[in-house]
Design brief:
Elements (H helix, E strand, L loop, with lengths): L17 H7 L5 H13 L2 H19 L10 E4 L2 E5 L2 E2 L15 H5 L4
Length: 112
């Protein structure tokens, strides 16, 4: 007598990757299983992650055409170059300390 749906404890398969589940299937042809295993053995997960990141950055750039990327090359302070291509050109005393109070919410949150 077949068990009714939802009657009794649930029955789960053993955990496994999608490839392991496909390879465990009796209907898969040996040639197909061997091809899938060869393909898996040739994959480099780090290179794959880097390629995905590049594609996501490209998608973001296309979706946000006015977003400026990169890093500033030159910083000016009152018309004087103080940072040029990562090198500090300013002198001690060029800047001016501006006293300000941080909001309590900013003071109490963890540093990132």
């Amino acid at each position: 007598m077949p068990r009714e749906l939802g009657a009794g404890p649930p029955c789960y398969d053993a955990p496994g990757t999608p490839l392991e589940r496909v390879l465990a299937c009796r209907e898969i042809a040996r040639e197909v299983a061997a091809q899938l295993q060869r393909q898996r053995d040739q994959l480099d997960p780090f290179a794959l992650a880097a390629a995905i990141d590049q594609k996501l950055e490209r998608i973001f750039a296309l979706a946000n055409p006015h977003h400026l990327g990169g890093w500033p090359e030159v910083m000016l302070l009152r018309g004087k170059i103080v940072v040029d291509r990562g090198k500090l050109r300013g002198q001690s005393g060029d800047g001016k300390s501006v006293a300000r109070k941080l909001a309590a919410a900013m003071q109490n949150r963890p540093a990132v």
